[in-house]
Amino acid sequence: MNRTAVLLFTRDLRVHDNPTLAAACRLADRVVPLYVDDPGRASNPNQRRFMLESLDDLRVSLRAAGGDLVVRRGATAAQVAAVGEATGADLVVCASDAGRFAAGLRERLADVAELRVAPGPAVVEPGRLLPSGGGDHYRVFTPYWRAWSQARWRGVEPEPERLRTPNLPDSDELPPADATATHLPPGGERAALARLDAWAPGSDDYPDRHDDLAGDRTSRLSPYLALGCLSARELAADPRLPEALVRQLCWRDFHLQVLAAFPSLTDVPYRRGARDDWESDPAALEAWRRGETGVGIVDAGMRQLLAEGWMHNRARLITAGYLVKTLGLDWRAGAAWFARHLVDLDEANNWGNWQWTAGTGNDTRPNRGFNHERQAARFDPDGAYRRRWAPS
Ligand SMILES: Cc1cc2nc3c(=O)[nH]c(=O)nc-3n(C[C@H](O)[C@H](O)[C@H](O)COP(=O)(O)OP(=O)(O)OC[C@H]3O[C@@H](n4cnc5c(N)ncnc54)[C@H](O)[C@@H]3O)c2cc1C
User: Fold this and answer.
1) 79 SS3 class
2) N or C: which end of the chain has fewer CB within 10 A?
3) What pLDDT score does 365 carry?
4) 366: Cβ contacts below 8 Å, ≥ 6 apart
């Protein structure tokens, strides 16, 4: 074997349990670690800031193993071709992913080099579990959870001790990110592991308190999972974590396999015959975006999103439910606003959950009502969350 491979990082910005990194080291003698900042990939300034910090952290880890990270800006396949030519690489290895961008990227990469695709962000790869009644993916969560829990998961990949690289070409200078949120978490694999280690020991109250808005007891690992600073596969097997948390990781896989089978999830109602006649009220939409609806619990959630680029899951459900079920506005407008701000933006999770909330997606009770007052009374009984984010 005398091969050089371009190791293309995408949403797997880590060195521990990274199947792409492990595959590249197995398949080639020399690897060219590359990240391409592709303007075609959906993101936002908050997630971009987080991504830049994650790249810095990844570079430190790769250097410690004797390698480095080449960073380029532009169309991914063209940059892979250019870097491949400069380094004599004849192979490109990248992670699988769901969605239109990822599918198009794989096609373009296959045109410029021999392509190997390693397991991606899921614990269980989309398409591996199929419903017994037929179909190319699971449409309902509970049977998926059963199959997922019993499935054999892939092995955890060891971190490579040493990376052999050829002479690496220069990196591009990436433009800085003008984050809009003022309280963003630090990016990178080290920060991810530190957050996990800080949260895991006290996580036994998660099953009881994950919906407590003011308590803020969820893991806040979502930005790290969205860019792969943390391995979902490893996390799902972490003995310190409660099953309720593992179930949430299964929801993540569930939406990924839906997106893989239905890439138009971002624009088209997933459920056949679902409602698609939404109201148009630009003033109400703008008030919702700014957290100025006058409904305390909704405004609190929307203002948390603006300040932190993150919102508690229960608040995401309440604010999204208010937009689609109370105001009757289009879920696509709500999802687009979330996509502009979420530091944990994830195509499958954002649009999958928006469609679920709107009743156009996988909810088995699509017409369920949504009462924000009852939600506030139940999940913010003494008003502490409302006072924190939307004091009157
Ligand atoms: C309208 C709406 C939009 C959303 N958009 C996103 C998004 O863009 N990115 C995103 O990561 N999550 C999204 N979610 C799911 C969920 O709100 C977040 O994953 C969660 O709030 C992140 O906080 P945490 O890491 O503390 O969660 P924890 O409760 O600690 O859960 C651990 C992990 O499980 C996964 N998870 C948790 N809840 C869900 C869920 N309902 N669906 C799928 N995966 C889940 C996440 O990866 C999360 O980090 C959305 C939910 C709704 C209702």
Assistant:
1) helix
2) N
3) 82
4) 271, 274, 359, 360
Give the pLDDT score at 364. Answer: 80
Distance 132 CA to ligand 1 centre (A): 28
* Separation between Cα atoms, residue 181 and residue 375, nearest integer Å: 26
**pLDDT tens-digit map of 198-226:** 999 999 999 999 999 999 999 999 999 99
Instruction: In whole angstroms, give the CA distance from residue 303 to residue 369.
Output: 24
Distance 273 CA to ligand 1 centre (A): 27
Which protein residue has the closest C-alpha to ligand 1 atom 46?
A: 222
Residues 212-269 pLDDT 10s: 999 999 999 999 999 999 999 999 999 999 999 999 999 999 999 999 999 999 999 9
Q: Which domains are present in the chain?
A: 4-120 (3.40.50.620), 123-151+192-261 (1.25.40.80), 282-389 (1.10.579.10)
With a CB cutoff of 8 Å and minimum separation 6, the contacts of 17 are 156, 157, 159, 231, 233, 234
Closest ligand 1 atom to 319 CA: 1
Helix axes 141-150, 243-261, angle to 10 degrees: 110
Protein residue with its CA nearest to atom 24 in ligand 1:
220
Instruction: Give yes or no for residue 90 having a pLDDT over 90.
Output: yes
Atom 23 of ligand 1: nearest residue by CA position: 220
Write out the two tokens for 368.
């369920």
pLDDT digits (tens, 9 = 90+) for 305-357: 999 999 999 999 999 999 999 999 999 999 999 999 999 999 999 999 999 99
Q: How far is CA 171 from CA 33, 78, 81, 297, in A?
A: 11, 15, 15, 46
Residue in this structure with the two tokens 């530190």, named with its chain if needed: 194
